[in-house]
Amino acid sequence: MKDVAEKAGVSTATVSHVINQTRFVAEETKVKVIQAMKELDYRPNSAARSLRSSKSKTIGLLIPVMGSDTSNFFFMSIAQGIENKLKEHGYNLILSNSNEQPENEEEQIKAYNAQLIDGLIMAPTGTDQSYLENTLSGTYPVVFIDRKPQGYDGDCVLVDNFQGTNEAVKLLFQKGHKKIGYVSGALGISTSDERLSGYKRELEEHNIPVLSSLIKIGDASFDTGYKLTKELMEKEKITALLVANNVMTMGAMAYLQESQTKIPEELAVIGYDDYDWAKITTPPLTVIKQPAFELGVTAGEALLERINNPEKIFEEYRLSTEMVIRKSI
User: Fold this and answer.
1) Number of domains in the chain
2) Considering the domain boundaries, does residue 327 fall inside one?
3) How far does the chain reach from its first CA to its final CA, in angstroms?
4) What CATH number is given to the structural domain containing 185?
5) pLDDT by residue (tens digit) across 117-154?
6) Cβ contacts of residue 85 below 8 Å, gap of 6+?
């Protein structure tokens, strides 16, 4: 306790009052004490009880959006759903961005640890979240959204990505296509991995060989979507194309329009996410729609349930995608 007092610049009596809530302590001083306790990993049982019972009515949201990526629309829709649900229960939401960088993610979590939040909702970066065991303070619950963490257990609210691409390939088979190209962002996160699995499984169900030459993987960007689509069209002579994220779909459509490919006569196309631009392409684009707002609402509900029932078993919530059929297939 003496070390905590010295680090916070207060007396040991003040530290004791903060821990035991036996006297009023100014909010600024309380924050200094609690931050010192966290940094020194000073956690007697009474401190843990104090931290849990001191409600700030504030929830953190950590998302992985890069400036060049259209996924910010997706995550903003999620944020709106979360905020709507939390407001019903008197909570405020603080938003931060990891920029898809694990080191930024860790830094933002440490910042949240010092802000007395009551819970955290986050879409994790990278492929290994085992470091969270040492980074998360343990004084608030965490709900993961969109991506399933590896190496860390917790409540998850996810989209059924396997279902989305699986149904898309099934639809293309019904239209008579067998040589279906697939364009995806980098693998290693659950969303990309599950979407590729859905594509492969439906091919296997129809006894169609899964050809690596028809599967193009690259960074999730407009330029890469353009480049990989061009490669498939020039080298593989595909009759249908499935693009597994929105920004690469935009790049793919840019190449197809530039090359004057007739859609769907020469190539059937299915993209990902239902944004307004997909309605005004020529022809309007068939897409796999994700329930972003609903995912946010469900995440808010899951976190509130965890706050009220911290001992319950971790749950995984899966929301279904929807095929929005237009004139590109």
Assistant:
1) 3
2) no
3) 68
4) 3.40.50.2300
5) 999 999 998 767 777 877 886 778 999 999 988 878 88
6) 296, 297, 299, 300, 301, 304
